[in-house]
């Protein structure tokens, strides 16, 4: 084995995002809360939309949203809510994208998460 005069440097992705949690909320309107974590070494700026599609559908739906915060420092999380008429028990693909072209997606089965801050539907 030949020894190198230098050690190869581990290159970390500058902007790498992962969906850390998805909550299906049934309040006055049905909503989905998505929490994203920045696993990279630089800030990520989230795009103002979330893509969603039921597993049985061929088409993605893009829903506009606002991330809090929109600029995500390394190691931090951001959250966004979308209004979407989800159905309990159905699986949904959810995809988020940062302006730096980083992307994360997950497959989640809709189950009820009660949010004490939102009024219940009658």
Blueprint of the fold:
Layout: E1 17-26, E2 30-38, E3 44-54, E4 61-64, E5 71-72, E6 77-83, E7 91-98, E8 103-109, E9 112-113
Parallel strand pairs: 1-9
Antiparallel strand pairs: 1-2, 2-6, 3-4, 3-5, 3-7, 7-8
Describe this structure in words.
This protein is an all-beta fold and 122 residues long. The chain has strands spanning 17-26, 30-38, 44-54, 61-64, 71-72, 77-83, 91-98, 103-109, 112-113.
Label this structure with key terms:
single chain; about 120 residues; mainly beta; Immunoglobulin-like; 5-stranded antiparallel beta sheet; about 0% helix; about 50% strand
CATH topology: Immunoglobulin-like
Number-wise, the strands total 9
Biggest β-sheet strands, sense, barrel: 5 strands, antiparallel
Whole-Å distance between the termini?
Answer: 72 Å
Structural class computed from helices and strand pairing:
mainly beta
Could you report the average pLDDT, rounded to the nearest whole number?
87
**Overall form:** elongated
> Topology as H/E string?
EEEEEEEEE
CATH H-level homologous superfamily name: Immunoglobulins
CATH class: Mainly Beta
Unreliable stretches:
118-122
Number of helical runs? 0
Question: How big a fraction of the residues is strand?
Answer: over 45%
Tell me the CATH architecture: Sandwich
Radius of gyration: 18 Å
Give the number of domains.
Answer: 1
Helix content: under 10%
Short synopsis of the structure:
The protein is mainly β and about 120 residues long. It has strands at about 15-25, 30-40, 45-55, 60-65, 70, 75-85, 90-100, 105-110, 110-115.
């Amino acid at each position: 084995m030949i020894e190198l005069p230098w050690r190869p440097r581990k290159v970390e992705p500058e902007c790498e995002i992962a969906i850390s949690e998805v909550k299906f909320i049934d309040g006055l309107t049905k909503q989905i809360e998505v929490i994203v974590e920045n696993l990279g070494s630089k800030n990520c700026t989230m795009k103002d939309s979330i893509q969603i599609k039921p597993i049985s559908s061929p088409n993605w739906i893009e829903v506009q949203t606002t991330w809090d915060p929109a600029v995500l420092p390394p190691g931090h999380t951001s959250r966004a809510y979308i209004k979407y008429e989800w159905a309990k028990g159905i699986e949904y693909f959810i995809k988020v994208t940062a302006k730096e072209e980083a992307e994360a997606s997950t497959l989640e089965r809709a189950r009820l998460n009660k949010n004490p801050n939102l009024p219940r539907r009658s």
